[in-house]
């Protein structure tokens, strides 16, 4: 599990070490970590150090100092380095060390031509971004903002540019705790963050700008601080798989009831059911129109179908809503499922049926447009673009108002528990943004919920509080869905109806990972 702490908590954890006179030692550890990653990237790109060039962007704070000390180390390895001092102040000792090692520097405020300076930076092999770190307030402003715009214009988009950009602690321009990007941002190939990840590096636009994330231990003790966000890794999702045992039968493994699909959108039911079966479940019971059941059966004859109400179909968990629009029976099933006290995954058409207050075992899976409607129905008016800019804030607000666990879909999937716990997954690929993709995500989460509904040890296995189990399950679902999408995309555009194969393969890999971890 990757754990992120707020910028404020990281600074609080630094305080006792600074009081003990260890500020310089911390900074040297940070600089060494940054240097190591920059060196590794240069080597990976086949550029080595002798004859290579680096530009260090150094702001007025300690972030700039870290970058200058990393630049000093590059200079000592034979890299030619220039520093661009972006603030009106600079850490004197760090600049002195950089200069002593042979580096030259220029003040951005004195530069006659920002475009020419940006073009120089865009011709370097590596750029260290030390403009802003945890001391950032708001988006980039002033000459730093102008410089980043000019650099982007000169270097081109990240995927096409030749300069390797390594962010010091975080890409300058992102919200440390939100990932919000309100102006120009220096998108990094890699980010080297110190002490622990910050939430902004995991969420939304901040996660996109961070590139590959490296966490460098600088000796901070964060044990007394609450995690601000967590990301499940494969081993965590593997711990949440309930593997069948010798005494299991189909009912004990868990039955998922699915009330999805309608005359208008029959396919959503087939997609959700296919994904649930591929994730692994004792049985799927399908409730809905006979014509939809027939379509489900074409692909999955093992499904047990009926046209009755929720009360007549015993299940361990429910999935309601995919493709269920303009269908009173499906709406009633959604309402009954949410009132049952059982875990329920609520997607698409059923989101409008969520009552005023539910419990964390009700997992809502809206995209930003659906979340906007859910909030508007509760008196919170906002724009879809605002939700996309600050997904954690709005997912949390929805979890707080409804009492449900809320998974907000997008490039990163953000899961907010009503306890305030936050999980963020960035396992997906934009190839998954295709119709029906969300139906398969809800099927995966439904299957996990059905198999774990009566498993008292599940929260402990993944190291979360019992109340946050449903959020962890939703995050694990996003991980499996995202990895399956990536796997599918290896051989071309993702076709959602083909996703069960990759889902099974991802689950098989996770089972193997768990077996290897358990064997001595
Ligand atoms: N503490 C430690 O021991 C350790 C800390 N570490 C490192 O220190 C970093 C935190 O350093 P920090 O606190 O000095 O803040 P930092 O982010 O460098 O700069 C803040 C300055 O930037 C400016 N500014 C603010 N907002 C702006 C904006 N939107 N647009 C433009 N400018 C803006 C503002 O300056 P002003 O504008 O007021 O002149 C402000 O003073 C941390 O990320 C890590 O890298 C590691 O070395 C480990 C040990
Ligand atoms: N740009 C993106 N990058 C990665 N994953 C994405 C992106 N856009 C959407 N997704 C994922 O694809 C799925 C889309 O779900 P949804 O919008 O509900 O589609 P549908 O309603 O057609 O089923 C979600 O799991 C979401 O996280
Ligand atoms: K930075």
TrEMBL record:
Positions annotated to bind (6S)-NADPHX: 62-66, 133-139, 169, 268, 323, 367, 439
EC numbers on record: 4.2.1.136, 5.1.99.6
Signal peptide from the UniProt entry: none
Binding site for AMP: 409-413, 438
Entries under Gene3D superfamilies matching the protein: 3.40.1190.20, YjeF N-terminal domain
Keyword Protease set for record: no
Transmembrane stretches, start-end: none
Cofactor: K(+); Mg(2+)
Domain of life: Bacteria
GO biological process, alphabetically ordered: metabolite repair; nicotinamide nucleotide metabolic process
Annotated YjeF N-terminal domain residues: 10-226
Co-factor remark: Binds 1 potassium ion per subunit.
Keywords: ATP-binding, Isomerase, Lyase, Metal-binding, Multifunctional enzyme, NAD, NADP, Nucleotide-binding, Potassium
Pfam families hit by this protein: Carb_kinase (PF01256), YjeF_N (PF03853)
Domain YjeF C-terminal positions: 233-510
Coiled coil ranges: none
Summary of the function given for this chain in its UniProt record: Catalyzes the dehydration of the S-form of NAD(P)HX at the expense of ADP, which is converted to AMP. Together with NAD(P)HX epimerase, which catalyzes the epimerization of the S- and R-forms, the enzyme allows the repair of both epimers of NAD(P)HX, a damaged form of NAD(P)H that is a result of enzymatic or heat-dependent hydration.
Family: In the N-terminal section; belongs to the NnrE/AIBP family. Belongs to the NnrD/CARKD family.
Complex and partners: Homotetramer.
Protein name per Swiss-Prot or TrEMBL: Bifunctional NAD(P)H-hydrate repair enzyme
Organism: Arthrobacter pityocampae
């Amino acid at each position: 599990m990757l754990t992120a702490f707020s910028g404020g908590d990281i600074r609080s954890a630094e305080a006792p070490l600074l009081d003990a006179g260890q500020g310089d030692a911390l900074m040297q550890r940070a600089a060494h970590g940054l240097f190591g990653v920059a060196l590794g990237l240069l080597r990976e790109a086949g550029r080595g150090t002798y004859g290579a060039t680096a530009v260090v962007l150094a702001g007025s704070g300690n972030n700039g100092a870290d970058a200058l000390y990393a630049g000093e180390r590059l200079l000592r390895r034979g890299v030619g380095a220039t520093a661009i001092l972006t603030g009106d102040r600079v850490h004197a000792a760090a600049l002195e060390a950089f200069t002593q090692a042979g580096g030259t520097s220029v003040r951005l405020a004195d530069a006659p031509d920002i475009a020419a300076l940006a073009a120089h930076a865009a011709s370097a092999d590596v750029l260290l971004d030390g403009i802003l770190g945890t001391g950032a307030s708001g988006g980039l402003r002033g000459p730093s903002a102008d410089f980043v715009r000019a650099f982007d214009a000169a270097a081109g988009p990240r995927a096409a540019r030749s300069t390797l950009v390594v962010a010091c602690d975080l890409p300058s321009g992102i919200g440390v705790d939100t990932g919000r990007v309100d102006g120009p941002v220096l998108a990094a190939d890699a980010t080297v963050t110190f002490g622990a990840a910050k939430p902004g590096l995991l969420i939304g636009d901040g996660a996109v700008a961070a590139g590959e994330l490296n966490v460098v231990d600088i000796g901070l003790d964060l044990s007394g601080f609450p995690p601000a966000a967590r990301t499940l890794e494969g081993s965590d999702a593997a711990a949440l798989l309930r593997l069948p045992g010798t005494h299991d039968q189909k009912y004990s493994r868990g039955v998922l009831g699915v009330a999805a699909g309608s005359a208008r959108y029959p396919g959503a039911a087939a997609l959700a059911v296919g994904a649930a079966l591929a994730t692994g479940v004792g049985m799927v019971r399908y409730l809905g129109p006979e014509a939809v059941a027939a379509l489900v059966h074409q692909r999955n004859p093992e499904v047990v179908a009926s046209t009755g109400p929720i009360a007549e179909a015993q299940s361990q968990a429910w999935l309601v809503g995919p493709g269920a629009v303009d269908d009173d029976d499906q709406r009633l099933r959604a309402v009954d499922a949410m009132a049952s006290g059982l875990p329920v995954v609520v997607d698409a058409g059923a989101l409008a049926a969520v009552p005023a207050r539910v419990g964390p075992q009700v997992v809502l899976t809206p995209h930003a447009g659906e979340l906007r409607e859910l909030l508007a129905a509760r008196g919170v008016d906002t724009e879809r673009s605002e939700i996309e800019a600050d997904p954690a804030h709005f997912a949390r607000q929805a979890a707080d108002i409804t009492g449900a666990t809320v998974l907000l879909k997008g490039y990163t999937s953000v899961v907010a528990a009503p306890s305030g716990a936050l999980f963020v997954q960035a396992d997906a690929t934009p190839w998954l943004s295709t119709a029906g993709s969300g139906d398969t995500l809800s099927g995966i989460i439904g299957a996990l919920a059905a198999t774990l509904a009566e498993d008292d040890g599940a929260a402990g296995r993944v190291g979360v509080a019992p109340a946050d189990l449903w959020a962890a399950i939703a995050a694990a679902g996003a991980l499996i869905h995202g990895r399956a999408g990536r796997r599918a995309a290896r051989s071309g555009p993702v076709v959602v109806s083909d996703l069960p194969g990759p889902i099974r393969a991802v689950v098989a890999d996770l089972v193997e990972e768990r077996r290897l971890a358990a064997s001595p």
